[in-house]
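Follow-up to my post from last week.
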Amino acid sequence: MEKYLIFNALNYPIITVLLVVPLIGAVFTLFLKKKSLLRVWGLAVTFLTAALSLPLYFNFDLTTPKYQFVELGHWFPSLHLNYVVGVDGISVLLVMLTTFIMPLCILCSWTYIKERFKEFVIVILIIETTMIGVFVSLNTVLFYIFWEAMLVPMYLIIAVWGGPRKDYASVKFFLYTFIGSIFLLVSIIALYIKTGTFFIPELMDHTYAFGYQMWIFLGCTLAFAIKIPMFPFHTWLPAAHVEAPTAGSVILASILLKMGGYGFLRFCLPIAPAATFYCMPYLLAFSIISIVYGGYLALGQSDIKKLIAYSSVGHMGFVTLGIFLLNAQGIKGAILQMINHGITTGALFICIGIIYERTHSRELKDNSALGMMMPIYVTFLGIFSLSSLGFPGTNSFVGELLVLMGAFSENKLVGALAIPGAILAAAYMLRLLQKMVWADSDGHAHHHKPGHHVLSDLNGREIFTLFTLAVFVFWIGFHPTPLLDVMDSSVTHLLHQLEAGMHHVGGAIHH
Amino acid sequence: MQITLFLPEIVLTFMVLAFFFVSLGKPKSGFLQGLALVLSAAAILASVVTYGQEGSLFLDVYRVDAFSQIFKVLITFGLFLVIYLAPKLTGIEKNLHPEFYLFLALSSLGLVMLSSAVELLTILLCLEISSYAIYIIIPLRKNHEHREQMEAGIKYILFGAAATGVTLYGMSYIFGLAHTTYLDGLVKVLPSLIQSQPLAIIGMIMMLCGFFYKLALFPMHFWTPDVYEGASNETTSFVATLPKVGAVALLIRLVSLTGVDLGQFTWILATFAVLSMTLGNLSALVQNDIKRLLAYSSIAHAGYVMLGILCVNELGLSSAIYYIAGYMLMNLACFYVIYNIAPSGKNVSFVDLKGLYKNSPLLAFALAVGAFGMAGIPPTIGFTGKFLIFTGAINKGLYALVILAVINAGISAFYYLKMVRAAYSTSGTPMAKINLGFSTSLLGFGLILAIILLGIFPQSFIELSREAIVAIFLFFCAFFYGNNHSFGHCCMAEILKRPQITKESVKCREWIHLILRLWIDRE
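User reply:
Got it. Predicted complex:
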């Protein structure tokens, strides 16, 4: 086992602590009554978790692709099922993203959530545990348990605190993802029967026949493609985004979608390399369709939240494109793009939440010409919109550039096809920005719009929320090296695994 | 004969007698429930105490071993919960309360005996004891306008009689072919008969029909929705859970008679399992009455249990035990909610669930945990059960079946979600707040915790069920090596002596492999 792992050398079980702190926080929430106390408590617990996750980054060993901070415990010996958690260069960033986004989710719900605040805090804390759990599990069953358990709190966030069509959206979200992931369960069991282990690194080390790989690949891909979501499985996303409360949208966009991408990197590529190579053209095609189609749909939306939701489909298309290019630039770009999308789109959803609280509308025409009244707000909106379209100097630029470089080095056609997606992103984001900041489409500024004159600019809390994210936008934009360093050896290792698996099965097919 | 072997049955018989005498007077209702609780708790205690003992009684027609005792614990525990769940028996005629408890105890007695019976006629007798008691309690419901409880009672008795007839007919074939009614005798001839004689397969299937009826598995499921709907909430919570546990016990015993390799027999059972799931789930989608919905969902769950049973390997069978225990808990959680939101004892539909969250957060949460559990969402006992059953089935190579089963799980998520959605919807008409007393809340918390914790930590329960499965295999195997159980005795003693449960599991597996090898090599 030491072949794959470096056991946790800190003097406390850091990952278990990250999993348990929000849960304990959720239990204690039960005893609080006052709303003011609840918000502070929720914020304190999520901040504490974020602070506790910092050692993961600072003590991370950049030189090894092994899983680090590993903890191992007995759980269900009858099936050789252990509790085993750890992070590598791919997952550590996603864990950090999760712990850092969660306090902002509480902050952006400060006044947005009007009723049942206690339950809201409990659900947010539980979902934090499950999301961290997905990224740190090194055991397929543990992974699946967290993966599925996450559905329930997310369902409740949409169904209880959602908008007018919450019933429809929440059920659609639940069923879509549930049906996708039950095939993942079958794949997990089939792998266990074949190899006798649920331990992910060991599963990666086995070689499987091509036909078997294909089945495993299809089973897993369905689950991940729905989650990420890739065209044609994306239809649940706009519905869920539009109806979810701000915090729900932020969690959905920033973290939940990343689970799909993470799943591809953790399961499909290393466990079924030959099938991955075989299916690569199809998945690249679907990725490009996602980019272009998502962009086109975003261009036509009049609901701001829907616009951002469709832009997510496009951005995640870039992520899958990067992953399935199967070269270092592509995969690094994809991981970076996952982080970027988490920051930028999360921020955009917070922006939408802020304006919705003031105007009670998400229609573009009701929220136009805000520049005069809310200068600070539109400054932030501008920053995040530019980041979303991949403007140089912002975080997304680096990610998209890497993915496109990967695409061109793989195949000129693929790169050329992805470019219109980037242009579309500029078109729909600038349209949004132009209308919201300056004026209506007819060119008249509606300063006298009823109700608009009372719009107040951001308060300290909101500025803090957005400022934190803006810092990351520029930090990654100008200096992405630390993040790329973290993922470097893991990505190299992943590519080795892919090549080795390919050679093995390729040889078998030829003989 | 050792009297202690028969202790749980004696306690239950005493309970029946006690309630018979009580029914002659005019007791207070608080006293009745208290007495029932105490006596059923004593029955649990008796079953727990006798766990680990083994032996045969009454000319070897009655077998006490780890397998029978785990089911006795489950059944008596279920009885206790059913009694605890309904303190006031609001759905039952006031003057019939003692009789209600009497027949509950009698039916449980039948089921407890069923799990120990190892001879065909004894099995039939126990089955009938438990059935007749249920025939009587179904119509005990408080009078409603349409008197649907009468219809339910008649349906249950007619279908039950027909099922018993089919079972007896099947038994006659088996007896004719094998010339014995003892299971230990049958096991020597049945595996080869199943391979060579189509009649043996027909006989087996017909014989199993009686248990399919109890379990509400596909060809014998017709009674379920109407009986669930017609019977009172208290009665349904009993009918929906305990007889199924008993039926699983017997199905495991009978199916494992046929040997490790079921051959064509597998495909017949598999067809039943898949049809049961699909039919149950699809019909449940459109139900409005929650009890009817649970009825169809129980048909679907019977299919999952069957999937575990037809694997006939250690993992499949022990997960079937785990699954049915989990199903009992989750179903009781749902009935707990139903009973508490219908104080007049009426049936509950989706409209009544609307906004339940505001009236009672605990009930809404219990319903959510029960429903998500039955849908198979982790971390609940329902997920772990499905996971184990699928693992057993894939281990057996039944990929197609597992794929069909997971698609069914996807379908079922919709109607379970509908229940949760109703309970947590904000748009309900405001109703009176439901005040649960301390003991009722305690039951709610207990059920929720049990469903979640047993789902996360299945190890100890699975060890117990595994031991139980080992016990039946040993029992059957003993007969290839002399008729005096000596081999079985040795093995059992070996297993039970072991102090630590984790090491035991390894040993158990070794034993099973050894024994199965001996069994297969015997020809």
